[in-house]
Amino acid sequence: MVSDAMQSHGPSQPTPGNRDPNEKYEKHEYMQGDVTGQSLNAIVNARLQGQEGLFLNNSWLELLFFSKGSTAQSVSINLVSTIPTRRTNGSDKIMADFDTLQIEQPVWFIPHGAGPCFFMDWNPPEAWDGMADFLANLSVSLPRQPRAVLLISAHWLESDFRVTGSTKPELIFDYYGFPAHTYELTYPAPGSPNLADHVLRLLTEAGFDAGADHERGFDHGMFIPLKLIFPKADIPVVQLSLRADLDPEAHLAAGRALASLRREGVLIVGSGMSFHNMRGYGNAAFTPRSEVFDNWLSTAVEAEPGKRWANLANWSAAPYAYDCHPQGHEEHLIPLMVAAGAAGESVGQKVYSEQVLKSQLSAYRFG
Prior knowledge:
The chain is an alpha/beta fold.
């Protein structure tokens, strides 16, 4: 919601009593504000709705977002409450507190590596450097810091969808045989029972059976990549499980049910691997197969939304599908389905691709 601290300039706002009924108050010439220290300026055309004076009500605005040292990009801001505007020299101008506006977040599907690979020595030493650099620089691409993160990890499967319901989830060190110090890693991000309840409400309204697990902690599919992406651990996180049947269409539909969270400032993240065959890592025979599958997957993600849905729902028909994700063990791919479902009409694009341990691995962004 927009704060009471919002300032307006110019003469007092027209009221139903003094408003010219023949005049259309439809144009905002500019908006300006501050988003976490970054300058935000825009020229906006918006329809002012309602007859009780000048109000902009639940309208979507396309803005230009200027961040330091980067190219302007388009972002959407949802003004979730009515904002009074004032008339100055024939135009409507407002100044708002942008910290209170809800900016639509993108959706990510990211690789989370192998166990605690980013926080230990590996052979070869540079094996995970490119992926680590990609993850460490992801947050600068966001329109603003998310209000919360909803993360779907490949490492949590339940018969029905479940969410973490604790305010302070513990870490689950669900990797084995790694150096002792990797079992002492910390990531004290808070949980968010309110967001968990909201997720459950959206899923049940869409016809899914879903519940909260108040004992479940954060598994390494969450805390390993987020230690790089959001190292301060100051953003609330809720984890959403996969459903154990790994039905791609059901997970696409679950994502679609959650898409509105993006407009509430929630970043939805699928955490898995675009290639995940333990026999294939380090095996040169799998390199060309992983490349062919990666090309198919990237084409599917970048297709128009209807075709994207159809292709991903039928991913097992892709070339070398089961070489890259063995049948019955495709849990590292399925978080992509939730992400793609939450994307709605947003465009998908490959934002990272690299050959790691002789297999092609990619990451995707929607919106």
